[in-house]
Amino acid sequence: PANGYLFSVTASNAEGTSSAAQDSFGRAPIAFAEGPWGLATGLDGSIWVAQGMLSGSGTVQQILKNDNGVWTAQTAIGVGSWPIALTTGLDGSIWVANLASNTVQQIVNDNDVWTAQAAIDVGNGPSGLTTGLDGSIWVANSDVNTVQQIVNDNDVWTAQTAIGVDSSPWGLTTGLDGSIWVANWGQNTVQQIVNDNGVWTALAAIDVVKPSALTTGLDGSIWVANYDSYSVQQIIAPPDAPVALAAVFGPALGEMTLGWQRPVSDGGSPVISYTATVAQGEYFQSVTTTDLSCVFDGLTLGSGSTYFTVTATNFAGLSSTTTHQVDAAGNTIPQQPHTGVGITTDGSLAINGGFDRAGNTYSWTALGDPASGGARSGSTLVSGGLAIDIGIPNQPDFTWAAGQTIEVTGSGSVLTLAGAAVNGGQENQQFTLTFTDGSTATWTQSLSDWCDPSAYPNESILSTQSYRNTASGGTDATTNHVYSYGYTLPEGKTLKSITLPNNPNVRIFGAALSDSTAVDLSWNAYGLVVANNQVPNRQGFDGHGNYYNANYEGSALGLQASSNSNFDYMQITWGGATFDLGPAPNRRSQSN
Known about the structure:
There is one protein chain. The chain is mainly β. It has 4 domains: 36-231, Methylamine Dehydrogenase, Chain H (7 Propeller), CATH 2.130.10; 243-335, Immunoglobulins (Immunoglobulin-like, Sandwich); 362-514, no CATH class; 528-585, no CATH class. Helices cover 1% and strands 49% of the residues. The protein contains 1 helix and 59 strands. The strands form 17 sheets. Strands 36-42-52-44-50-47 form a 6-stranded antiparallel β-sheet, with no helix packed on it. Strands 5, 6, 7, 8 and 9 form a 5-stranded antiparallel β-sheet that branches. β25 (211-216) and β26 (222-226) form a beta hairpin.
């Protein structure tokens, strides 16, 4: 029995029966100083209890089972005020949310001694915890209507930017797909928080009734306890993505057969259909089926890489996308992390959120239309004699920045990147350049949003398109751009690798190394001055006394390469080349 065994013994004679002598053993209650609140199970099978909601002096205790099968509470570990929720980390550590302290703490085992670590500040009213599939810790801050992720970077745990959700988030659970679910007590809703290319976003709320707790079913569905309606509800989730994609040539000439297996979990609702696509060169085909395979036709076998995708659909919606790529011989090409499909042929469906995570992409056709400013020639973007490879449409063609290091091939003294930002301009992004001699340099560069040029220093428009493609295969008349960014390597240095910033809103199509050739223009007039009161003569750049100002309101035109008592020598970098603007007079006496 849950409460143990109770034995009673009585004695009887002709006069009657005695009172009972009693003894008990088994699962007797384990006493605590005050009411326990949060519970968690350790990876070693021990039980952890949070207490201190009444006194405010919070503690966490471990309950261990000895060799005789007796469970015993261990010495209390002091934590913050009002410990209310616990979760177990993937490394076996225990995490506690301290409601009144607005902190979260990790309790770690060092040589069999459990110790609470320094508190991590989070939002007000941390009331719920869960452990992500990646080992991060998630906390619901009920007083400020946010959820935060706590991540480990080089053994330092840090709370990330808060994600806004509905009123009074209380319970949390982790979905089988790695998403986070939150119960919003004050708003009577449940929300899913999903990761899209490294950015966590709360989705539209699902109406329930006073949700007090959440858990995840083995089929991937989410279960919610509705306090006021005395009920429990199942929330159907989209299925996992199909698995085990494989492609073979045939059965007929120009055909390929793609097969896959069912999702590991269906989200609590059977899969209704699968949608598979194939992309080869500019050719694109989509097939919807209830089978676990399909045949694509119209292909040119042996003509380059072929890219497949499959999604599953159930009553709740669409799964994430599974991809598979093969070379001309049919061999599998390993999938590269942090890549996406940002360029599509007109009429093609977007894959995994497109270029901007909203399903929009560059148009392959518009990129090749010089009338609107398109700079594509074949599979490259060309500007000033410099060609940057962008691959082929409907296949992975861009990398989003996640702090990864990319090895460099080729040689040259000028590095040029082709790319753009999404979700607004991304300022002062740091690229680390590593050279073959082991030295490094930091290149700080701002990048404009792909649909909103900001004319940042050292940024030029490489290609302009008058429309873009949408997720459904349509178009919209939004002008968009690909930008180029140039960096002149230090003299005598050979570039080995580039480390990108850790910002998924930064997206790079390609890079090229080149050498610039100096051209002497033999300056013969002043068109640039350092300040308004230092105009050297009345001719100016236009012959009417007007000049470029090298330092207008503190904003420098390019960079100052050198200076003396008479001149500032200015430079700008554009399209991968450095331009010397010559001497800008910094004294009025330079009038000739």
